[in-house]
């Protein structure tokens, strides 16, 4: 497991609002580990998820 980030760190990393992170958790778009009352996210897993979400751009010639 790579570095764990909390919700604040993940929101800053993705340049999103914390509420978006919570919405994605609720919608099961991302996964995390709840330790006590704090959500933690594996950076490597987040990066892999981001890469899987990329859409190839069609280049017009």
Gyration radius, rounded: 13 Å
Mean pLDDT: 90
Write down the overall geometry: elongated
Number of helices: 3
SS class: alpha+beta
Q: End-to-end span in angstroms? A: 43 Å
Helical amount among residues, as a percent range?
40-55%
Strand line-up across the major sheet: 1-3-2
Give the strand tally: 3
Low-confidence stretches: none
- Number of spatially distinct domains: 1
Query: Biggest sheet, open or closed, and with what strands and sense?
Result: 3 strands, antiparallel
User: Approximately how much beta-strand content do the residues carry?
Assistant: 15-25%
The helix-strand sequence is: EHHEEH
Write the layout of secondary structure elements.
Layout: E1 4-6, H1 7-14, H2 18-26, E2 33-35, E3 38-42, H3 43-53
Antiparallel strand pairs: 1-3, 2-3
Helix pairs in contact: 1-2
Describe the protein's architecture and organization.
By secondary structure, the chain is of the alpha+beta class. The protein has one domain. Helix content is 46%, strand content 18%. It has three helices and three strands, in the order E-H-H-E-E-H. It has helices at 7-14, 18-26, 43-53; strands at residues 4-6, 33-35, 38-42. Strands 1-3-2 form a three-stranded antiparallel sheet. Strand 2 (33-35) and strand 3 (38-42) form a beta hairpin. Helix 1 packs across helix 2. It is elongated. The relative contact order is 0.21. The mean pLDDT is 90.
């Amino acid at each position: 497991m790579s570095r764990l980030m909390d919700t604040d760190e993940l929101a800053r990393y993705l340049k999103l609002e914390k509420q978006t992170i919570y919405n994605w958790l609720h919608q099961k778009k991302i996964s995390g580990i709840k330790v006590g009352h704090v959500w933690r996210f594996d950076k490597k897993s987040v990066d892999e998820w981001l890469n899987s979400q990329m859409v190839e751009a069609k280049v017009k010639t």
